[in-house]
C-alpha cells in the first residue's frame, strides 16, 4: 500500500513538471467548450473562449496553481497568436476588392468608431467615479493588448490594469456581438467584422473568424488601423479632456 | 504544413523587427499581416500551402487567447473596490463602440448604393 502511495506521489510530481500538461488541459477544455457552443446553437454565454477561461480559472483556483505557472505551461498556445494574426493576410488579400471599393466608408467608420471608443470610456468612467489613473488605463481599452499597455504606461496609467480591461472588453464584445447585431438589424458580415475589430481588437477578431473568414479579415484590418489611430489620437485627447 | 508555417513565421519576424527598429505605433504581428498582404498582391495569388496553414490557424484563433485571458483571475482584489463601476464602464462603452461603428459603416455603405 505504501509503495502505491509513493508511486502516486511520484507520478503526481512528474505530471506537475510535465511541460505539455497545461497545453493538453487548455486544448481539451477548449474543444469541450466549442462543442457546448455548437450544441447550444451559438448561445452567446456559451462562447468557447469565455467557457474555457472560466473553467481554467476555476481549475487553477481548486488545485492552487499560481497563474504564472499556468501561463508558463500554456505559453506555446499564447505564442501562436502571432502567426494567426499574420494568417489574417490571406482572407484580407482575398477581400481586397471590397476594401478598395469601400475605402471612404471604412475610413470614416474607423475614425468615428475609434473616437467613440475612447470618448465613451472617458465619459462613462467619469460618470461612474473612476479615479484619474483608472480613466487613463481604461481609455485605450479597444486596442490590442501590447499597444494598449504601451499607451497606458506612456500616458501615466497602470499597464497591468489596462491589460485586464482590454481582455474583458474583448470577451464582452465577442459575447454580445451576435444578439446586438440582430437587434440593430446589421446582417452584413463584413460590417460586423469591422465593428468587432474596432471595438474588441484581437478577441473580437477571433470571434469574427467564427462568423466567416471575410468577417475575420475585416476585423483584423480594423484592429490594426484602430491601434494606429488610438496611439496617435489618445495623447491629444487626454491633453484637452477636462479631468 | 511546414512550408506555410515557415512563411507565416518569417513574415512575423520581419514585422516584429521592422516595428521595433522604426518605433512604429502598431504591433509587429499586425505589420507582418500587412506585409504578407503586400507580398500576396505582388505574387497575385495565394499559394495553397500557405492558404491551408492560414485557415487552420484561424479556425482555432480564440484558443490562442486563453492563456492571456485566464490572467483576468488575477484582477480579484481590485474588483472589490472599483469592480462594479469598472464592469459597467467596460460593458457600456464596448456596446456603444460596437453599435456606433457598425451603424456608421452600414449607413455609409447603403447611402452610396
Structure described in brief:
Chain A has 243 residues and is an all-alpha fold. Chain A has 13 helices and no strands. Chain A folds into 2 domains: 2-79, no CATH class; 85-240, no CATH class.
The termini of chain A sit apart by 68 Å
Largest sheet of chain B: none
- Give the tally of β-strands of chain B: 0
Helix-strand sequence of chain B:
HHHHHH
Give the domain tally of chain B. Answer: 2
| Number of separate strands of chain A | 0
Q: Specify the structural class of chain B.
A: mainly alpha
The secondary structure category of chain A is mainly alpha
Largest β sheet strand count, sense and barrel closure of chain A: none
Low-confidence stretches of chain A: none
Beta-strand percentage range of chain B: under 5%
Helical percent range of chain A? over 70%
What is the general shape of chain B?
extended
What count of structural domains of chain A? 2
